[in-house]
Every structure is written in C-alpha cells, then in structure tokens.
Amino acid sequence: MLYRRLNDSIILCLAYFIISFCFAGISPRLAYAIPLSLDSGEKENAGATVEKSDPLNRENTRDAFKSFIAAAEIEKYDRASQYLEKGSKKKSEKTKEIIIQFQALLDQKYFGDLNAISEDPSGDLGDDLDPNEEIVGQIQVNQTILDIKLIRINDKDGKQLWLISQETIQKVPELFAKLRPSKLKSLFPAYFIENNFIGVPLYVWLVGILAFPILLVLSWFLVHFFIVSFRFFKKFFRRKHRAYPYKSARPIIFILAAFLHYILLSLIGLPVLIRAYYAQFISVLMWAGVGWLTFNLFNNLAQRNLQRLLKKGRFNIHTLMVLGNKLLKATVFVVFALIILNTLGFKITTILAGLGIGGIAFALAAQKTIENLFGGLSLLSDQVVRVGDVCKIGGRIGTVEDIGLRSTQIRTLDRTVLYVPNGALSIEHLENYSRRDKFWFRHVLNLRYETSAEQMREILKAFRELLAAHEKIENDSIRVRFIQMAAYSLDIEIYAYLMVDDYNASLELAEELLLSCMEIVEAKGSDFAFPSQTAYLAQDTLTAASSSSK
Asked: What is the pTM of this model?
C-alpha cells in the first residue's frame, strides 16, 4: 500500500525536480544571453537604444549584481571586472583571482534574496543607507559577516551606474581564507566536482536526484505521524475525529519535500544565481501545492456538508452548495494563478487591468449567460423552487428535476423535458403546487328544480354537518350556501380548505366528500340536474270545441 501511494508521487516529484533544475540552469543564460555577448568597448555605436542604456545592465542594483554573477559563472572575468569599482582593479590576474574567490563565497555562504533586490535605478530609498549605496546581501563565514555593498557612480557619459564597492572587494581574500571546502564534496570523485551540466556541478545533480525521493518518504512519514498522533490524542480525550483523506495529505507532503530539498541544495553549494532561479521555481511549485491543498480542503468540506444536507432532505441548499463550491474552486484557481504569475515576475497590476477590460468585454458579449447565472443564484437563494417541486410555468405543469447554472430542467406531465433559462424563469409567473399548506375544496352542486324549499334546507344543513364533523377540514373556512336559481338548476356552493399537504391525499379526501354529498342528496329525495328543456303543448280553442260537438 505504501509503495503504491509513493510510486506515482516520487515519479512526479522527480520530474518536477529535473525540470526545475533545467529551468534554473538555463534561465540565467537566456536572461543574459545578449548582454553577455558584448565585450568591453564593443558596439559603441550600435544604435539609439544601446546609447540610451548601459549594455552591461548596471543601471539598477538587481541587474548589476545578477549580471556580475552570470559573467563570473561562465568565466567572463574581463566582463565581470567591469562591475567592480575602479579602485579594486589593480592587476588583471589579481582581479580574476578575487572574482573567483568572490564567486565561491557567493555560491556557498551568500544570504539574501536576489529576486528581492530593488530594480529601481535609485535603489531602495526606504533603508538608512546613503542614497548612493545599497546592501544586496551578506556573506557569512564562521562568525565573520560581510555586507555586499553596491555604490552608484557617474561614468564619463554622465550615466549613473551601480558597481560593487571597493570596500567589499578588499575583504574578499581575507574571508575566502576562512572558507573551508564542503565535507560533502570529499565524498565524490574529482570528476563530479570539476564538471557540470548547464551550470550545475554533477555532484549537486547526483545529490539532488537521490535526495528527493528520500525527502519525499521522510515527509510522508512526518505528515502521517502527525495525523496518527492527532487521532491518538483525540481518541485519548474521547473526542470524535474525522477521517483525513490521503488526497489532503499529498499537497502537504509535496510542499514539505520541496522546501527541504531547497534547503539541502543551498547547504551543499548550489551556484547562487541558479539557486535564485531554483528558489523562484520552487516557490511556484510550493504555491501550486498550497493551491492544491486549499482546493482539496474546500472540496472535502463541501462533500461533507453536501452529504449532511442530503440526509436532512434540504435539496435546495444542496443545489446552492454545489454551485457555491464550483464558484469557490474557480476563485481559488484564479487567486493562486495570479500569485504564481507574481512569483514569476509578471506585473499583476497590468494583468488585473487587462482582466478588468476583458471582463467588461466579456460581460457585454455574455449578457444572457450572466443573466441566467444570476437568475439561477436568485432562484436558489430565494428558494423559489426546489428539486422535486411540482410547478406551473407558462401554462406548463411539471416536476423540477435540476436547477443548473444556466437553466432549470422540468419534467412535464406528458414526460417530456422542458428547459427554462433561469433569466426567463426569474421574471416568469411561477406557481409552485408543492408549497401549498392546504388544498382548496370548492364545488357548485346543481339540484333539480323539483327540489322543494324544505328539502333544500335539510340538504344545506346536512352538508354543513358533514364538513364540520370531518377532522381534516378547516372549520373556519367552511361555507355552504344556496347561491342562485340558474336556468335549469338550483345551485349550492360548497367551500372549505382541506388540511392535507399532499396532492394525492387531497384528491382522496375530495372524492370522499363528494360521494357523501351525493348520498345526502339522494337521502333527502332530490337529485342532480342536467341541462334540459321542458316543452308545453296547447291545442287551439276552436279546434277543441268542434271536436267535442262531433
């Protein structure tokens, strides 16, 4: 069981690790491919764009420091020396040695975040330093700490450039003398230490690949140890605990393994520039893991609440919960997508502005869809109809089978399916038969004209007694009246409310009452009328007299 659970995760995480390392190794080379192709003094007249900006990317502290590291990493020492303050360039060989030492210190003992360094040409004005000075990180060897300071100068063309200060460079040899080689390196042959692949030493690749599954298994045990301990303490204190599905633990395992892996590679001497890009990529993966965890937590919570609502028969809230869960998942996806884009360096304000303009265009193009969406939300929140209700909409009667985002599905009496857009349903006259608390019983009984007044009084009295004696009839609503003498009948109105909440039960009770009314009419010697005409025949007087004389 453990092997099956870890197998897919290990393969997936190893793929993430290899992709992230390749991304980290290639990114700095792609980012600085054009600047690194320029040597000192080249392309002085390359065009207006080059003349207006520094080809060595020294106009802000982040680009200047990163460009120096990139040049030193690919052994462009002449170029790297141009990021140093002039007073520190005494001899080319000495400068090259200092750059190599500085690079080794940065790779092993640099503390700072390259991506957090200011991109403003004026530097970070919020610190307490001189406006022309900027601290971009620290190097700590044993108890000695060196602040990496950049200073701003004006070149011969009047441009303001940022360079690594002479004060920092002068302390590099002293600090490098205190640096001790990593004990981990001694475990590998010289071949793995001296050779590299896309800027990453081979021994780092080997450690990274072997460490990831180990850290993944360790993270798995740590997370499940916490879960088991939590369950134990809950049981110890006799408290009920809910099941924690493995799907919710997977993101935590992944996040923990990625974090530990980054810490390990930082300790074994991952090149500082690649470490920065790798940290950025790991941040993206960790934010994706947090989004994955949030998505699973919301999904598990929604499923638990939906099951509880179904057991209680609250189908209307169930439908609203399903819709809310979908919208919440979409919101989580959008939020974490924006966070990941921000981590990758995209300008979120620009993206949000674009989304705002796109949202307006989308809203104009999808008015009916949005109308139906909000119509569905209105139906669900106001609980106008629920799944299972019998309704009359636009002259059609049917049972509501589903309330979706766009339309409501109704099964009609002739067993066809009627789809009504929610926007139209929200403004349509809707009669919900399932919401009746009592049923209206009203009938007009037509008696024959041969019924006498005395018989009529006895029939009316018997009808009132019948209704008043029944336990499922609302007494305050009973009304039995002789209302009119129609063309061919004497009409009696029977009016009452039946105290039942089921349509079939109301039909059964109405049937019982009508049969009792028929028995009363028959018992009182009357009968029900039907449309008829009576013809009265009269003979002529003279004709009748002559007939009698003969």
From this structure: 0.55
